[in-house]
Each structure stands twice: as C-alpha cells, then as structure tokens.
Design brief:
Elements lengths: L6 E4 L2 E4 L2 E4 L7 H13 L3 E8 L7 E8 L7 H11 L1 H4 L4 E7 L4
Parallel strand pairs: 5-6
Antiparallel strand pairs: 1-2, 2-3, 4-5
Subcellular location: Mitochondrion
Family: Belongs to the BolA/IbaG family.
Pfam family, one: BolA
Length: 106
C-alpha cells in the first residue's frame, strides 16, 4: 500500500499516483524560462542547457542539465556551486533542485 505521493518524470510525461499527465514539449513553464534565462546569462558559452520543472508544473523542484566550457578543470561540486550561486534567489522558493553538469566533449 502506497502512502506517499510519487512523481516520476520521463520525456515530459508525468505519472502522479497512477494518473498520467502529459505536458506539451514545446512549452516552458514561467519558472523554466526564468531559470534558462539566468543560466544563459551566467554561462554564455553553454553548449547545451535543459531545465525541466519536475514538480508537475508548480515550480517546487527543477532538474537542470548544463554543458559548458566554463566547467573545465573544475570538480563536480565546484560546477554545481557555480549553478547554485547563479540561481541563489530562485532556490529560496524551491523544495529541490537536481543539477547535472558537464564539459563539452569537442
């Protein structure tokens, strides 16, 4: 018996307590757009950037994938700290944040 609400995210399809909710891939939430703009400004040489609201659209939790040459020579914790610093104000209103960073391979 499940007593907690479970949320799984796969390719813009959310499964919430057994009910499927699909979000149009071409639209961004306001929160996603705001975070993308901040990160583009902070990391102008980012080769790729993806921000997804994994809270079902309420803005409580985000997943960020960012690939930037600005991370070169830095440990993962240092890379994540740079992202956290860039989003300092936004993080105050979040319940969680998943960060995935990488350096471009080319």
């Amino acid at each position: 018996m499940l007593s907690a609400l479970r949320v799984f995210h796969t390719n813009q399809v959310f499964v919430v307590s057994g009910h499927v909710q699909q979000r149009c891939v071409s639209t961004q939430t306001d929160g996603e757009a705001r975070i993308v703009n901040i990160l583009k400004e902070k990391f102008p040489s980012a080769a790729s950037l993806k921000v997804v609201d994994i809270s079902g659209g309420c803005g409580a939790m985000y997943e960020i994938h960012i690939e930037s040459s600005e991370f070169k020579g830095k440990r993962t914790i240092q890379q994540h700290k740079l992202v956290n610093e860039a989003l300092k104000e936004e993080i105050q209103g979040m319940h969680g944040l998943r960060i995935f960073t990488d350096v471009p391979k080319h």
